[in-house]
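Reviewers asked in the last cycle whether our approach scales beyond single polypeptides. To address this, we selected a multi-component target totalling 1006 residues and predicted its structure end to end. The input consisted of the following lines:
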Amino acid sequence: MRRAVFLVLTLLLAACQPPPPVKLGFIAGVSGRFADLGGVGRNGAQLAVEMRNQSGGINGRKVELLVRDDHQDADTARAAVHQLSSEGVIAIVGPMTSVVGAAIAPTLDENGLVAVAGTVTTTSLTAKDDNFFRVISTTRIYARNNAVESLRRFGVKRASILIDQANADYTESWMQDFKAAFEEKGGEIVSVVRFDSRQAKNFQQIASQVLAARPDLVGLASNATDAAMLVQKIRQLRPGIAITGGGWTASERLLELGGRAVEGMLVEQYYNRHDQSDTYSQFLRAYRQRFGQDPGYAGVAGFDAANVAMEAISHGATRETFKATLLKLRTFRGLQDEIRFDDFGDANRQLYMTRIENGRFVPLEYQ
Amino acid sequence: MNWKNSLRGKLTFLVITGTAAPLIGVVLLLVFWLMPTFGKQVSSNNQALANALATQTERALLPSQSALRQIAPNIAELQKRQHLQVALDTLTSSSNLFEAVYYVGADDRIASLAVPPNAPIQRHDFIGLDLSSAPILQRARKENHGVWSDAYRSPISSQSVVSTAVPAGDGLLIAEISLQNLSDFVRRLSDTSATLFILDRRGLVVAHPNPLLSAQQVNYSNLPIFEHGDENRTEVFELEREKVIGTLVPVRDLDWHIIVTQPMASVQHPVLIIAITLVALIVLGSLLAGWLSVHFARRLADRFEDLATLSQRLAAGDYPDQWPAQNLIEAERLNDSLRRMASAIRERELALREINLHLEEKVAERTAVLREAEATLARSEKLAALGSLVAGIAHELNTPIGNGLMAASAFQEHTRQFEKAALDGLRRSTLEQFVESAREAGELIVRNLHRAGELISSFKQVSIDQSTSQRRQFELNELVYEIVTTLSPSIRKARCEVDIEPEEGITMDSYPGPLGQVLINLISNAVVHGYHEQPGKVSVRMRKLPGGRAELSVSDHGHGIPPTVLGRIFDPFFTTKLGQGGSGLGLSICHTIVNNLLGGNILVESREGEGATFTLHIPLIAPVESPENNINLSRGETS
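The resulting structure, written as structure tokens, was:
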């Protein structure tokens, strides 16, 4: 009976309409090979929106996240921007990959839409007065520090770099910055091997190719799944060889699929995985409860990006004034630390280097 | 007209409430019966679909684990004979279920791997792959029996898969099963109204009719339907910005869930159509009923108005010949009653009129009798006054006549003595003495007889006046003196005295008899009622007024008249001396005489204990006598 009454009431209530929601776009590769970036980033943004809505939304209006899959494809991504624009979103959260970021930047300007990107670290978008904002730093910080740290920790001089062409905007940028810093500090890049994760791969062959120049260190910039496979292959061929991974590799999938092969590998982290603060613990708990897994850097970045966008809207930002509002507010509270935009919409965040020990990322400073 | 109390208002109100009741009933019926029934039906439909899908899902997935179980016991044998690869290849190619089947050795590395024949996979890439950290492996090792993974993206096939792991010797047999098949089931079972989807343990969408959604690994763990445990249940919630009614059914072996949803719109639509139809019909019906009732009420009100006008005409005594025809039994009955009432009134009116006619005659008859009695009384009153006059006059006459007689008898005696003396010799002195006494006697006799004559003539005048009521000219003070003179014996007897303040030259052309009667009445009243026969003074004043009128007043200083009586003293037959000789007509007659005959008026002023004053204002020349003015007196005279 109670159920019947409940059913009736909800049937009746269904006729009532709440105030129109605030529309927020989201673009990322939420399916396919890069889903551990895009999908998890979507989850982070989704959680931010859900938490916001649970505490009353923005000025009494619910926030609606319109998710579009860019399939890691420039044209699809641009079409998605146009579509979101015509659907009346105030701003876009994402993308999560540099290749899409680079592809949509002009489209954003064209549509007068601002994107607050999650994990786009390419330097190709740095210092440009465009509609592209991002909540993390660029490879200039991450890759350079990674190179310096690898030199110091492993004490090796010869490095090969293996990068995925599928996200060339990021990987090339990463490679350039890594190379520059590595060479600055007296190291030598003996080879750069490129592969394309979108095509059928022969991991064995790629690994052999990397090791052909007899490096002492392999710098790897690819998605985590491929990274895990490649590291396994490389270490099958050259057990114990020093490996360092770019931020893109730093997801939970690397640990799950890397097995014992990834032990001792250095990995860049865009956030502090060992944060003990209440805010982060709460977020972690909420994320695990909601999605049954850990957020990883993509989840954190998605969460931060969505919160920045919603914060700006709550300060009255409309689609037209969104960029001005971001630049006026300038500083936002991130999950772990402050997010401060420069005049070009780039944020300077800290790098957290980790080493994989016993199947976990362990911060270097604690060793 | 007060709308609320009018017939039309009342009827309209009744119709509205009468039609509102079924309307409310219908709404309640819809809300509490139809919608729950519908909801239940949707719920049971959803449940059936979900159960079917759960069965399908289990049927699709569970055999793969069974297949692994069949191989598992023989794993050592197969490995020893180098037949494992063949066995896995056979399994993979025998069914399109598997994306990959592999054996993980004790070292957690892939030892054997079989993939579908046309898969674009370099098998050697994966041989030796360390899966020690893979969640499925860790769980299978821990639980040491067949387990199912969550959905994940296979590093081998790059497809969305679910894998099952079965312990086999020291290692594990693992099969990856494409979720594509499940998506196909789901697509086939979902139709336009119902959407089915499968969620894994974490709430991740494993299969969805929309392939994009299953590819995007959307997580629905936050759907409200999960909040109340996972038994079979149906709820209304929001999904992808659409209100849906959804049913949750668990897939026990996998710890997965099936959700079947239907858009609320599709559920509400039929109910809405029924509701709108019913409400529209009722509203139409009530509009029609309202219109009819207003129309009917107006006609009824007109009919009532007609009847009201008719009854007003009846009230005014206008009896219509033609009665309006009524087509309603009740109105006809009312009409009939009115008609009967009208004729009854008419009959009664005629009877009353007849009685009235008769009554006038009777009143005239009685009045005549009363008048006669009144006249008789007045006449006796007059006779009584006359009587007292006669007594007074006789008394007055007694003195002069007695004196004359005494003088005559004294002279007789003197004559006899003179005769005797003359016989003895007449002396001069005796003669002179006799002459002196004769002269004195003559003088006395003459004077007294003169006086008697005067009295008689005045008596004659009074009696003529009193008995004839003739009109003549007279002097008012003379009349007053005459009356007072005639009354003086009774006044003296009562030890009262009358003080006259005369005024000369009030000549009147009027009726001295009736005026005298009034005066007699007023003076006797003063003596009898004012002083109760005790000594007292009665004043009679007269005065000539401008405008040919005279004022005559009679006042005493006796007991006065009580205010309760003062207003009634001029009423006929009013007396305070009933049974003591008062007729109660005295003042009434005075009033009639003064007002009617003399054309004046009579006023009384009195304060109890201080006496009373009766004042007459009368014209010097009385009005010409009219027969009605003088009913009393003319009758009195003629009888």
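Chain A has two domains: 15-136+276-340, 140-269. We regard this as preliminary and will revisit it once experimental data from Aim 1 are available.
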